[in-house]
Amino acid sequence: MGKTERSKMLANEPYLSTDLELVAMRRKAQGYLHTLNIATPDDLRERQEILQSLFGHLEPGFEINPPFYCDYGCHIRAGKNLYINVNCTILDCNWVTIGDDVLIAPNVQIYTAYHPTAPAVRMTGVEMAAPISIGNNVWIGGGAIICPGVTIGDNSSIGAGSVVTKDIPANSVAVGNPCRVLRQE
User: Fold this and answer.
1) Which helix (H) or strand (E) holds 114?
2) Beta strand pairing status for 157-158 and 126-129?
3) What is the Rg, in whole angstroms, of the alpha carbon atoms belonging to the chain?
4) Has residue 1 got a pLDDT over 90?
5) What is the DSSP letter of 168?
6) Cis omega before residue 67 (within 30°)?
7) What is the CB neighbour count within 10 angstroms for residue 116?
8) Which end of the chain has the lower number of beta carbons within 10 A, N or C?
9) Active site residues
10) Where are the alpha helices (DSSP H) in the chain?
């Protein structure tokens, strides 16, 4: 029996996002996100329950401020004491692993998904997705973009507006477009 489109997606192989299983999974996530994003600030318990149902794994001590957006949710795994400020988008077509004590500022975008650069291949409708890993005690500044396949090491800080296209080693302060390590602490 051949691979499913989801298994290809999670293996960073070309896949079709129009696959019925994947469409159903995205619709389920959209239902959770709709409820989350219209919940009043007083509905903290409801918001936490929605997020526990949406994420693949979410440790205690999290605060995720709506609006929040993702593709599937079930491919996001996060450690304890996660803080995500408003307007975060995570395209979790592959695994997004977030460590403990991570701070994510407003308007951060985390993208596992990407498309072929060859026009003829892109026209076939296939896309790919590479996993992203964010270590423990990481701070990601406002408006930063984390690109497919990136690993950010423990205790690192990513400056506001940075576009992270390559791995960032542990204990780094990194900024810019493309994001570069300024210093290691």
Assistant:
1) strand 113-114
2) unpaired
3) 16
4) no
5) B
6) yes
7) 14
8) N
9) 115
10) 5-10, 20-38, 44-54, 119-122
Helix (H/G/I), strand (E/B), else coil: 62: coil
Cβ-contact 92, 76 below 8 angstroms = yes
Is cis: bond before 41, omega within 30 of 0? no
Tokens of 104: 């994510």
Q: Could you give the CA distance from residue 58 to residue 84 in angstroms, rounded to a whole number?
A: 12
Those residues whose C-beta lies under 8 Å from the C-beta of residue 89, and which sit 6 or more positions away, are 69, 70, 108, 109, 110, 111
Angle at 50 between CA 29 and CA 20, to 5 degrees: 15
- The residue whose two tokens read 């795994």 is 77
Whether 90 and 72 have beta carbons less than 8 Å apart is answered as no
Which residue type is seen at 9? Answer: M
Q: What is the pLDDT of residue 185?
A: 85
Give the mean pLDDT of 27-40.
97
pLDDT in tens, 86-138: 999 999 999 999 999 999 999 999 999 999 999 999 999 999 999 999 999 99
Whether the model clears a pTM of 0.90, i.e. scores above it, the answer is: yes
Joined tokens for residue 65: 């401020």
Report the SS3 class of residue 39. coil
The residue with tokens 């499913």 is 4
Fold of 5-184: UDP N-Acetylglucosamine Acyltransferase; domain 1 (2.160.10)
